[in-house]
Amino acid sequence: MANPLFQLDQLRTLVAVVEAGSLSAGAPRVFLSASAVSEQLRKLEQQAGHPLLLRSKGGVQPTPAGQRLLVWARQMLALNDEAYRDLRGVPLTGALRLGVTDYFRPAELSHLLARVQARYPGVNLQVSVLKSGLIEAAYAAGELDVGVTLRVAGPGSARTGQLLRREPLQWLAAPGWRPEPGQALRLLALPDSCSLHQFTVGLLQRRRVPYVVALQASGVAGLQSALAAGLGLACLNASSQAPGVQAVAAPHGLPALPQAGFWVLPARQGESDFVRQARALLLADLA
């Protein structure tokens, strides 16, 4: 009978390779040769019973099974590191500046962050809820330690960083809302600096769907209120659906929508041990 336990060193190798983008780039992160990394991944795939990575000249991408295992791997590695620090009497202490897009699980985010703060009281968590573009700019300027942004899946979309979760995009409106024949859609959105606003407008223009931006809310909460009031429809990720708002029932004649991904911006060169450890623990909880 096969050993049912995953090996932490193999899980660590999987995470390193996915985050680095290739076997050769991930090998130095776990202090192994490329051939040793390949062998560890082969054993891990055999243990999992599924292919975990898609390999190409451009690097590697996790398969659906690989993505599922990545979530567990990060949680197991974070717990292992936490247990080691606890037994060795080395608490995690310091300030972590986190930027999160306001599309990320808006109904749950405050509870998730409160749970993280309770589990790691030595971490001073400083949270900014911003648009993805502002998060990327602040991160590039060194004003944030960790950034979580939203990206719409599609050809040419960026893949740098670490995928945290995927969600479908949906057309949302108040119950009973239907497009009015011959009338321009009343589109509700965040300001035009928002990447999802830009995607939605671009999609409607390409499909020649008449629309008017009837309202620009400053944040997702305001957008949810406007939708519930029946002021129009919006393109939002699934976890942004709120009470009094639902997906527009098919057939509706609106363009099909892709998935959105929540990505963690890639680690900086020379990142401190505290930031690296705090990121791993934080993202294991948020995932």
Automatic annotation (TrEMBL):
Residues 6-63 form the HTH lysR-type domain. Pfam families: HTH_1, LysR_substrate. Gene3D superfamilies: Periplasmic binding protein-like II, Winged helix-like DNA-binding domain superfamily/Winged helix DNA-binding domain. Keywords: DNA-binding, Transcription, Transcription regulation. The keyword Transcription applies. The keyword Plastid does not apply. Belongs to the LysR transcriptional regulatory family. This is LysR substrate-binding domain-containing protein.
